[in-house]
Amino acid sequence: MNSSDCRVTRRAVLVRAAQAAVAAGVASRCQLAAAEKSPARFPDYEIWDMHGHLTSPGATPKEKITNLLRAADRMGIERVIVFMGYPWTYEPTPDDMRRENDQVLEAVAGSGGRAYGFVYVNPRHTEASLAEMDRCIEGGPMVGVKLWVAVRCFEECLDPIVERATELKAPVLQHTWYKITGNLPGESTAGDLAILAARHPKATFIAAHTGGDWELGIRAIRGLPNVTAEICGGNPTAGFVEMAVRELGAERVMYGSDYSGRSFASQLAKVYGADISEEAKRLILAGNIKRMLAPIFKAKGMTL
Amino acid sequence: MIVDVNVHLSRWPFRRLACDELPRLIEKLQAGGVDQAWAASFDAVFHKDVAAVNSRLAADCRKTRPGMLLPFGTVNPTLPDWREDVRRCHEEHKMPGVRLYPGYHGYALDAPELAELLTMAEERGLVVQVVVRLEDTRMQHPLMRVEDVDPKPLAELVAARPKLRVVVLNALKGVRAGVLAALVAAGQVYFEISMLEGVEGIANLLGQVPAERLLFGSHLPMFVLESALLKLQESELTAAQIEAITHGNAERLLNG
Ligand SMILES: [Zn+2]
């Protein structure tokens, strides 16, 4: 690429990072392209953002995902996983589930192959949830299950959902938080997820937010090898990712942002700023989610 | 060229932080391209002998090259003879400003002592930094729960003191847009980006807070420095906006 070519390539985006960070004040993309030979601040990581929602500007799911991906390009993020529609529902009815999942299906279809969906279900409506999983995963393009705050996840109504997800080779992502200010009635802690994960050793779980209060969350899931810590949605507090890698191993830590309520910058910084090996960063930013999704991608004939 | 207006020295009581010792902090700032940091001390949040904290802070800042760390001492207006701390910060330590922690020190922004403190700061030409929060209230230590400060009453205080310069720290998540706009309209009030969130956060914020009132702040060492740096990349900004946010506004503010 020569300096008169102003297309924003992934490389130029990363060079822009370097320039903004080290010599803040660089003007145009053209100047950045010209600066391409200077050493980049961060290596050219492959990045999958494992957690986010259709909250970007836009009138339709397609417009929302398009706007989101434009911002993702600036940060070198190649693929995103998306779940839940709009408006949000804490305790979705079967109709809510279908509406929200339809919005995600539209976004996935309009993403040029860069977004993958997880089906959003409410275990309280067990049959309707199983039907949505069949519709969106077995009969559709979705590759995982999202559980939010409808039911605390140690409850028995989770069992058929986890069993079906395991048959479909779909990971189960559960929102987890320990709030000293008080959880919602149906909001799970990371300890709740540990109880569920112990009942289903063959299932694959993702602890979204790592329990929020990560110094508790990491400990809660430490003994459960089938639970991966996903780091999105909190402050970029120093030490989070280091503790997760120390206690769980880098193979059990995963980057997500909780876009667009959180910024890509603050969430990526947790990984970029961590005192861990380059290999660990590569696993967290893309390697682990790709390995986790490989079985379902293979079953669906999708390429990674 | 970057001026980071939101840095702390010393230790956070509830966690060791990678950059909670001076050499490592300086190394990190320099590696990130930060040429100047406005530093207070975590000790000031918790210690009653704040005069000793301020002296240590001034001494620590002198250990670096001139202009690298600017000390912002702390005044706690609930302590006896707090006015003497204002005088020492200004006259003895030659500090450019002070940092206040109303939430941790337990006073409201409508406390009469605060009004008097702001008047003293205006007369002495001290920049006043007001800390809205230090961490997420949802995950504080159970024995140390501190509410966020509502900066709304600052508008009236600032409007009555046209020469006063105020920087509100750690405010850009949770404070309502209307309050931000009211503070901007009231007088010389600035915000920094350390707790700003949302995809393309800076670009979105510019509708409520003009670039002329935004400063670069990292909240290092509590936060990783990369977060604030990457926010400059995440939003499509003009060269003039980047220049203003990273150092132009801070320099103008300091030269008051
Ligand atoms: Zn989320």
Walk me through what this model shows:
The complex is a heterodimer of chains A (304) and B (256). Chain A is α/β, with parallel strands linked by helices. Chain A folds into two domains: 1-38; 44-300, Alpha-Beta Barrel (TIM Barrel), CATH 3.20.20.140. Helix content of chain A is 43%, strand content 10%. Chain A contains eleven helices and eight strands. Chain A has helices at 10-22, 29-34, 61-74, 94-109, 126-138, 159-167, 190-199, 214-221, 240-248, 264-272, 278-300; strands at 48-49, 79-82, 115-120, 144-147, 172-175, 205-208, 227-230, 253-254. An eight-stranded parallel β-sheet of chain A has the order 1-2-3-4-5-6-7-8, sandwiched between helices. In chain A, helix 7 links the parallel strand 5 and strand 6. Chain A is globular. Chain B is α/β, with parallel strands linked by helices and 256 residues long. Chain B has a single domain, classed as Metal-dependent hydrolases (TIM Barrel). Chain B is built from eleven helices and eight strands. Chain B has helices at residues 22-31, 43-46, 50-62, 82-92, 102-105, 112-124, 154-159, 177-186, 201-205, 225-234, 239-254; strands at 2-9, 34-41, 69-74, 97-100, 127-131, 165-169, 188-192, 214-215. An eight-stranded parallel β-sheet of chain B has the order 1-2-3-4-5-6-7-8, sandwiched between helices. In chain B, strand 3, helix 4 and strand 4 form a beta-alpha-beta unit. Chain B is globular, with a radius of gyration of 17 Å.
